[in-house]
Amino acid sequence: MRWDNLADNPAKTTKSGEAALFAADAVTTRTFDTPEFRGITFHEVRARSIVNRVPGASRMPFEWTVNPYRGCSHACVYCFARKTHSYLDLDTGLGFDSQIVVKVNAPELVRRELASPRWHGAHIAMGTNVDCYQRAEGRYRLMPGILTALRDHANPFSILTKGTLILRDLELLRQAAEVTEVGVSVSVGFVDPELWRTVEPGTPSPERRLDVVRALSGHGIGCGVLMAPVIPFLGDRPEQLRATVRAIAAAGATSVTPLVLHLRPGAREWFMEWLGRHHPQLVGRYERLYADGAYAPTWYQRRITRHVHELATEYGIGPSRRGTSRALPARDEPQPPLGGSEPTQLTLL
Hints:
By secondary structure, the chain is α/β, with parallel strands linked by helices. The protein contains eleven helices and eleven strands. The strands form two sheets. The chain has a seven-stranded mixed β-sheet. It has a four-stranded mixed β-sheet with strand order 1-2-6-5. Strand 10 (223-230), helix 8 and strand 11 form a beta-alpha-beta unit. The longest helix is centred in the C-terminal third of the chain and has 17 residues, at 298-314. The protein is globular and about 50 Å long. The relative contact order is 0.15.
């Protein structure tokens, strides 16, 4: 593994001369013999920095992220964060699903970096790379410390998740919402149970995720839904879109934002391999639809977006501009990175 590229010691540099994020001798590898963690290996590391700047070319409506984990046991076949595992010489397929890097010092780093005089309270987005409420969080409990630090510094933040474990931290979210802007979005791209079982095998069911929306709304925390991904030829039929939007509306979501599947390098290969096994008749159609790159053609994206917005209006929740449900503040002036510049591979899925 290329752990030498990730050093805990600020004095340690890589062959390229750049400071690394943690060192090989700071990695502890564990396995747990419990049903929920069977087949999963955890690499516990002490990161050097945790508040990371979004790449300048990104179109995301936020500048800073916190990602306490790398890899994700949700095992979504389409997740484009898979590519980040290759930075550590880890497999981007099954390895991404089962080799989880845990930044065990994330809460203390967040508190330290928010206290820096160079930090001016910009919005921090979480869940934009891998899910911070994936299964590992039930054991490592990093989010309570992170949320407590954000609350104590009244720092605005947002969370995107497929995990029901976020309800464990409901009281902390409520407390934070009293002193700063808090946005929560749940990702539900479809409600088809068969599609869920095959493309998102490690996630809670869509119904359980919508229960999270209900619970948060019931406690006064507005929750939007990122309807993502809309999967071409598998989850985009008019009756499927209607069923999904209807369920989202019934759960009390404040907004719904559709996002069509995109296939970046790393995810594309894994998804197409899955597609060839489960739906070989669709391989040619996908090759044509995504012939020009990672994104579906603009005409297709616009068709899906228009249809979802019409349905949302019909069911009384209305469309949402991208990121609206996150309650984002105005963008601050850019601030210098705090102690490191870890590449941040973003995904809203």
